């Protein structure tokens, strides 16, 4: 009769740790429920917002009938997204629901298409989607332009001095909520401030190198310009 062997306590502990690590975060019902409720509330706020109104970066006065039609299309999309069960609130499903709405805007003016893209990006933020993988830019511009920004940023980093790269590392921790506070702590008051934009001088003697925050339809972009050397941009 073969000897009966038992796993060691160390092996049992290791097995338990590995099993715990393999449990996905969405398996926590409380966390999943809280995230779903936050998303529903964000979608409710989005639906309640009046859309396609004259505002910075969208200086258009639509006929009210056109505005209401465009608003209804976008709000219906948001309602369709709101009805998705958590298991289907995935990037492919969300972007797939965008496509019929984008098709409806094919005959619209360019300014109205741009504003639609802004609303779609808001919905992406609600669902934690960082990129449309070229869907939006291909529809709006006829080509995937997402790689252009990455290429320009790579060129900018290559053109930076060692000190500028150190600053860039510090800026990587900036996000939408703390961006202005961080730049004020580093560079003081903005040297320029206008509706939707603020600019700080990186160089004390002049404005040959500036950092700016550009707010457009709820999205915030960090823009670093060094005259004649590079332009670096990152959406926060």
Would you mind describing this structure in some detail?
This is DUF2066 domain-containing protein. Residues 1-27 form the signal peptide. It holds the Pfam family DUF4844. Keywords: Signal. The protein starts with 8 loop residues before the first helix and ends with a strand. The chain has 236 residues and is of the alpha+beta class. Strands 1-2-3-4-5 form a 5-stranded antiparallel sheet. It has helices spanning 9-21, 29-48, 64-82, 91-104, 110-126, 135-141, 146-159, 162-171, 179-187; strands at residues 192-194, 197-201, 209-216, 219-226, 230-235. Helices cover 52% and strands 13% of the residues.
Report the structural category.
alpha+beta
Low-confidence stretches: 1-6, 12-27
End-to-end distance: 67 Å
Please give the radius of gyration in angstroms: 24 Å
Shape call = globular
CATH level-4 homologous superfamily of the largest domain: Uncharacterised protein PF16133, DUF4844
Number of domains: 2
Question: How many helices in DSSP terms?
Answer: 9
Mind describing the biggest β-sheet? 5 strands, antiparallel
CATH topology of the largest domain: hypothetical protein mp506/mpn330, domain 1
CATH class categorisation of the largest domain = Mainly Alpha
Order of helices and strands: HHHHHHHHHEEEEE
């Amino acid at each position: 009769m073969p000897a009966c062997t038992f796993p060691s306590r160390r092996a049992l502990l290791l097995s338990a740790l590995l099993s715990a690590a393999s449990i996905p975060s969405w398996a926590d019902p409380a966390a999943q429920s809280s995230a779903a409720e936050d998303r529903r509330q964000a979608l409710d706020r989005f639906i309640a917002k009046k859309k396609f109104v004259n505002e910075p970066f969208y200086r258009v006065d639509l006929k009210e009938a056109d505005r209401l039609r465009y608003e209804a299309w976008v709000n219906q999309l948001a309602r369709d997204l709101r009805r998705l069960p958590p298991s289907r609130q995935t990037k492919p499903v969300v972007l797939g629901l965008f496509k019929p709405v984008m098709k409806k805007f094919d005959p619209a003016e360019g300014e109205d298409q741009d504003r639609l893209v802004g609303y779609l990006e808001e919905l992406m933020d609600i669902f934690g989607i960082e990129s449309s993988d070229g869907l939006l830019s291909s529809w709006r511009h006829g080509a995937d332009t997402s790689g252009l920004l990455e290429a320009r940023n790579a060129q900018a980093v290559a053109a930076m001095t060692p000190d500028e790269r150190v600053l860039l590392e510090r800026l990587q921790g900036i996000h939408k909520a703390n961006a202005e506070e961080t730049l004020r702590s580093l560079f003081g008051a903005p040297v320029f401030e206008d509706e939707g934009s603020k600019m700080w001088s990186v160089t004390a003697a002049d404005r040959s190198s500036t950092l700016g925050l550009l707010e457009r339809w709820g999205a915030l972009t960090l823009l670093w310009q060094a005259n004649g050397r590079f332009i670096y941009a990152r959406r926060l």
